[in-house]
């Protein structure tokens, strides 16, 4: 297995901009679906039929439970199910809490359990840089390292390498889709920190500027040593600014990388036979183009992945459409993870269109800015109206915070710059999202999903002032 030092080859002298060109096709106005994609990928693009499943893949499993039906009785793409991992089961749909650096920010692992989270997702890019994947391997893996005994996920690091490399801060801007230019992926005033080639990506560490190399093989090595139950294949992130021609080029590269990820994953699975089996999910790209999304689903769906992640740049208004395209084309018997969503309307839309699990940093991120979720919308505790509000964040909420603390107290903590405010609001926000998805799962089972969706979203997006408190 390569050492950490092996990952640091001689970097290029400079990092040029990517092969981005002005965006030339409006969102969702893709060309007609090629007839060759109706049942299989076109010649030369299909997955290698020689790739066979690994004998240990039976240690991971997914079973479909209840299928969602619309009010008129017609079938929808949503479903309940159960993911089985070496460290426990995940009942789906499920919201996966994000512990980027092996911690859900400001929240104890014990509190994460108490708020009902079934799994935690960490970030391979950040853990590779600090403390190093070898440290987690010596500790017994991600779960043992952070004292979490449930299922764990790691992403490949591709999103962070590409997005940080493009000069974005925390979240890629999904709204500025009309801008065109030679290198629109780089945010104004930012330095490009990464460059993609056929073999992988060179990138500068955001911590100290050191040069590093990620490739499919390196990503697999890092993720195997981190030791999560579910890993994601290394893929190239594109943005809505990239031209269709570049999306096509990138999609083919991601397919080739997927095949390399599987080969290295199976090799490492044999090499580390004494370790619990780690599942590998392929990542579906293709931006807003139906034919490209379908091609990605057919190509990667023919490979022996354990499940799939739906990734890439998605405009909010097209989320359900794109998730539906992917769900309809991917293997029915494998789980689908939608990367990076937590807003109530997005969650209900994704569940309805066939996504099984989700992750997002938003519940804890907004908490650190004093924002908290309620059934009537998101409100900000920094406002003066909360100074003498001695009610819980949400009447009737079953979380630890609401059972023990008042809005007035947490308002005081935030104003006093005490970190406990971040912890208490984060616990509530995570519980709010976990409970919402749990309720959606139960509603699929009892046939009330669409009633729950209407009731929940109409209240949350009513746009009215906070009705609770003095």
Automatic annotation (TrEMBL):
Residues annotated as the enzyme's active site: 155, 359
Biased composition (Low complexity): 35-50
Protein name stated in the entry: Queuine tRNA-ribosyltransferase
Cofactor (UniProt): Zn(2+)
UniProt keyword annotations, A-Z: Glycosyltransferase, Metal-binding, Queuosine biosynthesis, Transferase, tRNA processing, Zinc
PANTHER family: QUEUINE TRNA-RIBOSYLTRANSFERASE
A Pfam family of this chain: TGT
Organism: Zafaria cholistanensis
Biological function: Catalyzes the base-exchange of a guanine (G) residue with the queuine precursor 7-aminomethyl-7-deazaguanine (PreQ1) at position 34 (anticodon wobble position) in tRNAs with GU(N) anticodons (tRNA-Asp, -Asn, -His and -Tyr). Catalysis occurs through a double-displacement mechanism. The nucleophile active site attacks the C1' of nucleotide 34 to detach the guanine base from the RNA, forming a covalent enzyme-RNA intermediate. The proton acceptor active site deprotonates the incoming PreQ1, allowing a nucleophilic attack on the C1' of the ribose to form the product.
Enzyme kind, highest EC tier: transferase
Residue ranges, annotated region (RNA binding): 364-368
Residues of the tRNA-guanine(15) transglycosylase-like domain: 78-461
Region (Disordered): 1-86
């Amino acid at each position: 297995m390569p050492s950490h030092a092996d990952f640091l080859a001689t970097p290029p002298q400079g990092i040029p901009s990517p092969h981005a060109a002005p965006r030339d096709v409006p969102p969702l106005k893709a060309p007609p679906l090629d007839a060759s994609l109706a049942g299989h990928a076109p010649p030369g693009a299909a997955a290698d039929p020689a790739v066979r499943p690994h004998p240990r893949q039976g240690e991971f499993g997914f079973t479909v439970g209840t299928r969602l039906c619309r009010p008129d009785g017609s079938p929808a793409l949503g479903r309940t199910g159960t993911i089985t991992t070496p460290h426990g089961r995940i009942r789906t749909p499920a919201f996966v809490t994000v512990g980027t650096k092996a911690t859900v920010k400001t929240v104890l692992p014990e509190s994460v359990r108490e708020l009902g989270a079934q799994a935690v997702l960490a970030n391979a890019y950040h853990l590779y840089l600090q403390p190093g994947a070898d440290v987690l391997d010596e500790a017994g893996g991600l779960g043992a390292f952070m004292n979490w005994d449930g299922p764990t996920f790691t992403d490949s690091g591709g999103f962070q390498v590409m997005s940080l490399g493009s000069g974005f801060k925390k979240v890629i801007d999904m709204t500025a889709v009309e801008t065109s230019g030679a290198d629109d992926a780089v945010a104004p005033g930012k330095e490009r920190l990464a460059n993609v080639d056929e073999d992988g990506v060179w990138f500068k560490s955001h911590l100290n500027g050191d040069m590093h190399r990620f490739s499919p093989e390196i990503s697999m090595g890092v993720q195997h040593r981190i030791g999560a139950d579910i890993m994601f294949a290394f893929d190239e992130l594109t943005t809505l600014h990239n031209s269709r021609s570049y999306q096509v080029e990138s999609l083919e590269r991601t397919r080739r990388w997927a095949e390399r990820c599987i080969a290295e994953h199976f090799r490492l699975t044999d090499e580390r036979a004494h370790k619990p089996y780690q599942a590998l999910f392929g990542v579906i790209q293709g931006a807003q183009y139906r034919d490209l999304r379908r091609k990605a689903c057919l190509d990667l769906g023919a490979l022996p992945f354990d499940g799939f992640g739906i990734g890439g740049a998605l405009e909010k208004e097209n989320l359900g459409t794109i998730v539906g395209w992917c769900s309809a084309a991917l293997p029915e018997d494998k789980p689908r993870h939608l990367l990076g969503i937590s807003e109530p309307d997005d969650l209900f839309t994704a569940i309805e269109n066939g996504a099984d699990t989700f992750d997002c940093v938003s519940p804890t991120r907004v908490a650190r800015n004093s924002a908290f979720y309620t059934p009537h919308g998101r409100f900000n505790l920094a406002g003066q109206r909360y100074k003498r509000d001695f009610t819980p964040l949400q009447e009737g909420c079953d979380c630890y915070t609401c059972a023990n603390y008042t809005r007035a107290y947490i308002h005081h903590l935030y104003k006093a710059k005490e970190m406990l405010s971040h912890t208490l609001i984060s616990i509530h926000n995570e519980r709010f999202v976990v409970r919402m998805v749990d309720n959606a799962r139960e509603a699929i089972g009892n046939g009330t999903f669409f009633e729950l969706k209407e009731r929940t979203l109409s209240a949350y997006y009513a746009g009215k002032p906070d009705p609770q408190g003095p």
